[in-house]
Backbone:
C-alpha cells in the first residue's frame, strides 16, 4: 500500500509540476485577470497611435498619456526607440496593476537596414534568405523597443493596380504560404521572449488583396471555396508557423466587414485552426464598420467586432468608449472580454514583459544595432537575388552572336548613366520604410554602387533626363548628348517610393511621366542600352520591352540597392530572380494570372477568337509570366521521367529532370513544378505551383532534379469545403517559368 501511495503522490507531484510548468503562463494570466476591473480589462483591448508618426487618419487626443496612467491603454503603435518606449512603459507602471504596454510597429521589410520590398524578396524564391531578412528586421526593431511587428502581410493579390501588392508575395498561394511561414519564423526567431525576437502578425485577414478593381479598401466578394482555396492558405501557414497575432482587414467580405466577421475570426481562425494568439483590428476598422453600413454607431461597431473575435481595437476608440456599457447592457458577455484579455495578457507574459517591462528598451543594445555591417551584407545578398532579368538580347558588335548585352564589362571605357533613379537614395526604399537622418550617406545609389565597382579607367557620364512623374522633357537633350559620348548606356526609370503602397492604387500602371519617351530618345542614338526599372508592382512598358535589348527589374531594393545593382550589371552576380506576379500587357487585361481555369472554350493561341473570353484587340498572354526570369547563362531541361505512370493514394510518384547549364556563366535556376488536375468535382486550374528547387550549376554542369508527389500535392477544396484529392488524370510540368515547361502525365488510381 505504502509503495503505491508513494507512487501515487509522486505522480501527483509530477503531474502537478508538469501541469504548473505547462500552465504556468495560463495560470499567471488567470491570476492577473481575477484582479482586474472591467475597465482595466477593456483598457488592454485598446491600442493607440503615438503622436510621433501616423499610418492612418489620426484622432488628436491630448489625454493619451494620462489614459496610459489610468490603465486605459494596452498597446501603442508607431512608438519606437529604447528611450521613448521606456518613458511610456514608466507610465504603465504607474497603473494599479502595472500591466506592461505592448509596442507595435510596421516593420515590413527592415527597420534600420531597409530590405527589398516583400514582393521583390518573393522574386528570390529563397526561403532561407527571406527568413534571414525578417530575422535582421526583428533584431534591429527589438533593439529599438519594438515588441510586435505588423507583418508578414500575406494577402494573395492578382491585381497590380492595387498598391499593396508591394507588401506581399504576389499571386501564388503555394509560394505565398511558404513565404508567410519563412517570415513568421524570421521575426519570431528562436522564440518569443528573446530580446531579438518580435511577435509577428499575419495580415490582413482576409482576402484584402481581392478588392474589386484593385482599389484599396474596396469590397471583396467570392465563394467560400475560392476563399479557402486561394486566400486563406498563407494565413494558415502563418498560424502553423506559430504567428503570435493576426490583423483583420478593412474590406467587407461577402457583405460582412472582416473586422466584424465571425466566420473568419471565430469559425476559421480560433475555431478550426485553434489559434491561441490575439487579433488586432486594422487602423480604425472597428469604427469604420459604420461607414460600411454594418454598424449604426461606435457602440454597435464595438459590439459586432468584439463578438466576432476582434480582440484589440487599433485607434478607433470604439472599445474604450463603449465596451463597458455593452457588457452592462448584456450586449457583449463578460466571457468575450475575458477571452480577449487573456489572449492579450498571455502574449505579454510570453514576451517576458511582466517579469521585465523594460527588457526591450535598452539604449545600449539599440546603439549596437545602429550600423550593423553584417546586416548590410545580408541586405545586399537579398537585393541582388531579388533582381529579375527580363531581357538580355545580343547586340553586335558589343555582345557578338548569342551573347547577351549583359553583363557589362568592367573595362568599359565610357558608361552613360541616365534617368531619375540613377542618383536616387530614398526612392530605393519603397513604401513602409523609415527615413533616417543619415540616409543620404547610408543608402547606396546606383551611381555610387557602379562607381565603387569600377576603376577610374571607366568614365561615368550622368544625366537625369527627366523627373519620375511629370511631362517635362527639357532634360532629354542633355541625356541624348551624354549617351552619344558613351560606349554603353544604362537608364534607370520607374515609380517613386510613394506610388505603390497603402492607398496607392493606380488605374494607369504604365511607366510614369515621360520616362519611356526618354528611353526612346536615347535609343535613337543607336547606342547599346540597358534599362533598369524600379517599382513596387508590375508595370507596363511594352515599347521598352520590345525595343531595348536588356532589361532588369530592380524593384525597390533598399539600403544596399546601388551595390546590388552593380553586382548584377557587371556580372559579379548572375541574376536568378523569378517573377512572383504576372505582368499584364495593358490595364485592360487585369486580372491576369497563370493559375486560371480552362473554361469551356479554352484558347490555344491568339488566333482562337471564339475562345476563353479573349479580347479581340489583345493577346491572351501577359507580357511576362508568373515564374519568369532569365539568367546570363542558359539552362536546358531534359524531358520529365516519372517513376511510374500511375500510383495509388498510399504511394508516391517521383518526377525527375536533368538540367544542364549550357551557357558561359555559373548560375542559379529555380526549377518549378506545376500540376494540373484534368477533371474534378469542381473545375481545376490549368496549372498550379506545387514545388520548386533552387539549383546552382557551374557552366557546363548537369544536375538531376527530382520532385516527390503525394496526394497532399493534389488536394483542393471541393464544393462542400472539404479538402480532398480525387483519383484521375493529371498533368505535371517542370521548367524555369510557368509558361516554359516540360510536360508529363500520370494517373492517380483509386
Ligand atoms: C494601416 C495598414 C496596416 C498597418 C496599420 C498600422 O492602415 O492597413 O497594414 O499595419 O495601419 O500602421
Residues:
Amino acid at each position: 500500500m505504502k509503495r503505491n501511495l508513494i507512487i501515487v503522490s509522486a505522480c501527483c507531484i509530477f503531474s502537478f509540476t508538469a501541469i504548473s510548468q505547462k500552465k504556468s503562463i495560463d495560470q499567471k494570466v488567470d491570476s492577473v485577470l481575477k484582479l482586474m476591473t472591467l475597465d482595466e480589462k477593456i483598457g488592454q483591448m485598446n491600442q493607440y497611435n503615438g503622436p510621433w508618426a501616423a499610418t492612418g487618419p489620426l484622432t488628436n487626443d491630448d489625454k493619451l498619456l494620462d489614459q496610459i496612467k489610468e490603465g486605459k491603454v494596452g498597446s501603442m503603435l508607431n512608438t519606437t526607440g529604447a528611450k521613448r518606449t521606456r518613458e511610456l512603459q514608466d507610465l504603465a507602471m504607474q497603473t494599479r496593476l502595472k500591466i506592461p504596454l505592448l509596442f507595435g510597429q510596421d516593420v515590413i521589410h527592415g527597420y534600420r537596414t531597409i530590405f527589398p520590398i516583400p514582393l521583390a524578396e518573393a522574386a528570390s524564391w529563397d526561403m532561407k534568405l527571406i527568413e534571414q531578412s525578417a530575422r535582421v528586421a526583428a533584431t534591429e526593431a527589438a533593439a529599438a523597443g519594438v515588441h510586435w511587428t505588423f507583418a508578414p502581410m500575406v494577402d494573395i493579390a492578382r491585381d497590380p493596380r492595387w498598391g499593396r501588392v508591394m507588401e506581399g508575395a504576389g499571386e501564388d498561394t503555394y509560394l505565398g504560404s511558404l513565404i508567410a511561414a519563412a517570415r513568421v519564423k524570421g521575426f519570431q526567431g528562436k522564440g518569443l521572449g528573446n530580446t531579438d525576437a518580435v511577435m509577428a502578425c499575419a495580415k490582413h485577414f482576409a482576402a484584402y488583396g481581392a478588392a474589386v478593381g484593385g482599389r484599396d479598401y474596396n469590397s471583396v466578394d467570392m465563394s467560400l471555396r475560392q476563399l479557402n482555396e486561394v486566400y486563406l492558405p498563407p494565413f494558415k501557414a502563418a498560424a502553423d508557423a506559430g504567428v503570435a497575432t493576426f490583423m483583420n482587414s478593412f474590406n467587407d467580405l461577402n457583405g460582412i466587414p472582416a473586422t466584424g466577421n465571425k466566420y473568419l475570426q471565430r469559425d476559421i481562425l480560433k475555431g478550426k485552426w485553434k489559434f491561441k494568439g490575439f487579433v488586432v483590428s486594422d487602423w480604425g476598422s472597428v469604427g469604420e464598420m459604420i461607414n460600411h453600413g454594418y454598424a449604426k454607431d461606435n457602440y454597435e461597431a464595438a459590439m459586432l467586432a468584439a463578438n466576432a473575435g476582434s480582440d484589440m481595437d487599433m485607434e478607433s476608440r470604439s472599445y474604450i468608449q463603449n465596451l463597458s456599457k455593452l457588457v452592462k447592457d448584456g450586449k457583449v458577455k463578460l466571457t468575450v472580454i475575458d477571452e480577449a484579455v487573456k489572449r492579450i495578457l498571455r502574449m505579454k507574459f510570453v514576451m517576458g514583459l511582466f517579469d521585465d517591462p523594460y527588457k526591450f528598451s535598452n539604449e545600449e543594445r539599440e546603439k549596437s544595432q545602429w550600423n550593423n555591417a553584417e546586416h548590410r551584407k545580408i541586405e545586399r545578398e537579398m537585393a541582388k537575388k531579388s533582381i529579375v532579368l527580363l531581357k538580355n538580347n545580343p547586340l553586335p558588335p558589343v555582345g557578338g552572336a548569342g551573347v547577351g548585352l549583359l553583363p557589362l564589362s568592367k573595362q568599359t571605357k565610357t558608361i552613360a548613366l541616365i534617368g531619375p533613379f540613377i542618383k536616387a537614395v530614398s526612392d530605393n526604399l519603397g513604401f513602409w520604410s523609415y527615413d533616417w537622418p543619415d540616409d543620404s550617406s547610408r543608402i547606396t545609389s546606383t551611381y555610387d554602387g557602379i562607381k565603387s565597382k569600377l576603376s577610374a579607367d571607366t568614365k561615368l557620364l550622368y544625366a537625369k533626363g527627366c523627373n519620375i512623374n511629370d511631362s517635362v522633357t527639357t532634360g532629354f537633350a542633355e541625356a541624348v548628348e551624354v549617351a552619344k559620348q558613351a560606349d554603353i548606356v544604362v537608364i534607370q526609370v520607374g515609380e517613386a517610393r510613394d506610388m505603390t503602397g497603402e492607398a496607392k492604387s493606380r488605374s494607369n500602371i504604365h511607366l510614369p511621366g515621360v520616362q519611356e519617351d526618354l528611353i526612346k530618345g536615347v535609343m535613337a542614338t543607336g547606342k547599346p542600352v540597358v534599362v533598369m526599372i524600379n517599382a513596387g508592382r508590375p508595370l507596363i512598358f511594352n515599347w521598352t520591352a520590345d525595343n531595348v535589348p536588356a532589361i532588369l527589374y530592380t524593384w525597390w531594393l533598399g539600403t544596399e540597392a546601388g551595390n546590388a545593382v552593380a553586382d548584377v550589371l557587371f556580372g559579379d552576380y548572375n541574376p536568378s530572380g523569378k517573377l512572383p506576379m504576372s505582368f499584364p500587357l495593358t490595364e485592360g487585361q487585369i486580372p491576369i494570372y497563370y493559375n486560371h481555369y480552362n473554361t469551356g472554350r479554352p484558347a490555344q493561341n491568339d488566333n482562337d477568337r471564339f475562345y476563353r473570353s479573349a479580347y479581340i484587340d489583345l493577346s491572351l498572354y501577359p507580357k511576362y509570366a508568373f515564374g519568369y526570369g532569365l539568367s546570363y547563362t542558359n539552362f536546358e531541361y531534359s524531358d520529365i521521367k516519372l517513376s511510374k505512370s500511375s500510383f495509388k493514394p498510399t504511394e508516391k510518384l517521383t518526377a525527375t529532370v536533368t538540367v544542364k547549364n549550357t551557357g558561359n556563366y555559373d548560375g542559379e535556376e529555380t526549377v518549378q513544378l506545376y500540376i494540373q488536375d484534368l477533371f474534378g468535382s469542381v473545375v481545376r486550374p490549368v496549372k498550379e505551383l506545387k514545388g520548386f528547387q533552387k539549383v546552382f550549376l557551374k557552366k557546363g554542369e548537369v544536375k538531376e532534379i527530382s520532385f516527390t508527389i503525394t496526394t497532399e500535392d493534389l488536394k483542393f477544396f471541393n464544393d462542400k469545403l472539404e479538402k480532398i484529392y480525387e483519383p484521375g488524370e493529371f498533368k505535371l510540368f517542370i521548367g524555369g517559368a510557368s509558361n516554359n515547361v516540360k510536360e508529363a502525365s500520370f494517373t492517380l488510381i483509386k
Q: What stands out?
A: The two ends are 57 Å apart (CA to CA). Residues 2-35 form the longest helix (34 residues). The chain has three domains: 2-367, 378-569, 633-748. The chain has a mean pLDDT of 94.
